[in-house]
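For the sake of transparency, this paper describes our internal protein records without simplification. An entry from our holdings is shown next, in its original layout:
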Amino acid sequence: MSRSQPFEFRSPHRIRKIESHTRSWNGITVRNIVQYPDPGKAWHDLSSHETTVAIVLGQVGGYCEPRLNLHRPTLRSRFDAGHTTFVPADMTVWGYTDGLRSVRELRMSFAPKVPESILGDDLDSAKTDTPVLLLYDDKVARCAELLAEELSRALKWQPPVLREPDDSIDGCPVYSPKRPDTAGKRTFPMAVASSDGVPRSPRDAGHKP
């Protein structure tokens, strides 16, 4: 197991609480994430300094989707969970939600050269800089669910039931100190960064829907 990288949760808007648990192996960081958006519309930048793959495993209340343009919905024929998004390093792709009470996802980040070392000649370098939105593949979703379950067992953490967040939070944003997350910790250590790398407050409303 290698050291996990700081969680760059970029440009969040109306995200009231996040839970994240992390493990890293051989340059691949895997995160089991639960987000609790405020009522209505919310979003954040899915990108990081590493190539990222995000698989939505469950959602309650409304819907979520990746967007290249925050103001333009992504064309789709279904609105259920189970979709995968591929995000090239440092390329802004918005994770947009509307009416959601909670969403659970598995997010994998790959250090430079790791995809090439895994795929070898099968890697199409011409596609590594192109985002892929809303890919529905039952096998991918099932593998992600199994990986999330294994991560939970390894860290002895039970993911919360997706439901309305605890009223005791009373609508206030909940964020832990900005420091790199550590494998096995139950707290959520989050490094908040904007898409341009300048730290901002968690409720930064630098973009309007």
